[in-house]
């Protein structure tokens, strides 16, 4: 009976080719080409995904405009033309440049996320390490996590009034709970046998936490930060649209909508999508990969 053909992945085929072409006395096989191919693969996937998204947008605009959309649904090409005017031609977006709006939004995001990261990691670590208080402490955390971002608006206005501080508080309230739940779950998922082994070797509680629990849960912690950042970026735009920050991408969307400048709104939405994609696929993905390499789960 003839053997069935073996189907191998592109990386496996590249490695087999490197083995075949390597000198007989070579002790190290070059694998940089594999990483280069991986980078090209990721870039091609992102570009293909963007192309599909733009195609869906184009079809959607064609269908709506052919059916007589009263205000005219913006097409991708004309939206990018307006975006180019904001970015390169110095066109003002109602008193501020697009860079001032973007800088204000990023400032709101970084301040809120830094606070959420500190609170989420500390609170999540405490809940994950001390099993006796986990069941009790997770009740209020779960309750707060279920509150939608904009539902925090009355609390924010009562505490800080309208303005930047309210937007920062709403972002913090949402993302800190996401990080807390992810960190606590990651620490509790560490195999108990590792903790018991450390105790048998005489390790203190602080040593167990720093040298056993945190390294083993680091992948989950990074993933929790990634989810927290995504939540923060989404609620940031909604918060800026409502609390009257005076500048920011969310505020600019509300302003262009009120003035029926939907082309400007779509240009701002495009920037939001591109910045969010950059944060998720470059910054956070790099942090996750670095952590996996540190743990030996991925080759450096």
Find the CATH topology of the largest domain: MetI-like fold
Gap between N and C termini? 42 Å
Helix content: over 70%
CATH architecture of the largest domain: Orthogonal Bundle
CATH superfamily of the largest domain: MetI-like
- Residue runs with pLDDT of under 50 for 5 or more positions: 25-32
Q: In percent, how much strand structure appears in the residues?
A: under 5%
Structural class: mainly alpha
Rough shape? globular
Average pLDDT across residues? Answer: 83
Tell me about the largest β-sheet: none
From the alpha-carbon coordinates, what is the Rg to the nearest angstrom?
A: 25 Å
CATH class identity of the largest domain: Mainly Alpha
In N-to-C order, the SSE pattern is HHHHHHHHHHH
By DSSP, the count of extended strands is: 0
H/I helix tally: 11
Q: Tell me the count of domains.
A: 2
Summed up:
This protein has helices spanning 10-21, 32-66, 76-88, 98-129, 131-146, 153-160, 164-188, 192-200, 205-243, 249-258, 262-294. It is mainly α.
How are the elements arranged and paired?
Blueprint: H1 10-21, H2 32-66, H3 76-88, H4 98-129, H5 131-146, H6 153-160, H7 164-188, H8 192-200, H9 205-243, H10 249-258, H11 262-294
Helix pairs in contact: 3-11, 4-5, 4-7, 4-9, 4-10, 5-7, 6-7, 7-9, 8-9, 9-10, 9-11, 10-11
Q: What does it look like?
A:
By secondary structure, the protein is mainly alpha-helical. It has two domains: 10-73, no CATH class; 78-294, MetI-like (MetI-like fold, Orthogonal Bundle), CATH 1.10.3720. 77% of the residues lie in helices and 0% in strands. It is built from eleven helices and no strands. Residues 25-32 have low confidence and may be disordered.
